[in-house]
Amino acid sequence: MTIVKGVEARGTHHCETTALGVLLRHEGLDLSEPMLFGLGSGLSFVYWDGKGMAFPFLGGRVRPFELTRNLAARLGLTLTVEETTSARRAWENAAAPVDAGRPVGLQLDSYHLDYFRSKVHFGGHVVAMYGYDEHDVHLVDTGPQGGAVRTSRARLALARAERGPMTARNRSFTITAPAHPIPWQDRIIPAVRDCAEAFLSAPIANLGHRGIEKAGEKVPGWLLRAGDPRRDLPQAALLMEEGGTGGALFRVLYRDFLEECARLVGDGRLRTGHRLYAEAAVLWTEVSALIAEAGESGDAGCLERAGAVLRELAHVEKDAMQVLSRL
């Protein structure tokens, strides 16, 4: 058995920040999960209802792996990424860092993992691998998925090779800190400002605050859009609150990031942004509860109220990001 020593599994919520935390702590940089999420400019919004989709998707963050690239660039970290279509090479890319005594990040489809509780295809899932033996691999996943977990090497290979939305070709990655690290506190304001500017200037109406407004228009029709409302609506609500989002579609994580930043930087605009995202987090939880109730009861009025709250949210988040963009 090969195991990287000193790896700690914490009670984290989001997969990509969980893996980043493992890799960065090994490099001597220990940051909270909200700080990792915020320094990676992770917050966003997308209303996605593509052709052939069984049901619309509400996303609250940037695309898979964009957070990792953002964070590495912002902190001056060396991000080494490997991708391949070869199963043999894929295993070598994952095992080699572990053999050298360092954890490695893997992007994969969580559907195939032995321990995963929800058997739904999601190709943007990220874990940290820190050990293996002849049959199994040792991974760190989110707290709700068990923290320090194991899956078979065969199932891991299937998960990494899966093709479909948000998947990557057996992607593995390592992070190396520079000899003279950039003080991460100095990167707070650029991270907040970049996130705000991207949110406000999203190129299509499905993204950012315009995407939230569009969701407000579309959600009232979800009882007719759903193939099975009693299944589809509660599942959508569950993903918003518990699908690795940290609650309220990532708004709790961003609220806590802004609170931490306000204590460190002391800028009134950060305090205003924190107050508005605290309000947004409560409203997002209200939206998810109304969507779940509509699915369980068949009451279209719940979706009308959810639509109204979403339209309010579009204004709250736009206001917050306008303030934060002026940092």
From TrEMBL:
Transmembrane segments: none annotated. InterPro entries: BtrH_N, DUF4872. It comes from the Bacteria. Residues 155-324 form the DUF4872 domain. Residues 14-142 form the Butirosin biosynthesis protein H N-terminal domain. This is BtrH N-terminal domain-containing protein. The lineage of its organism: Bacteria, Bacillati, Actinomycetota, Actinomycetes, Streptosporangiales.
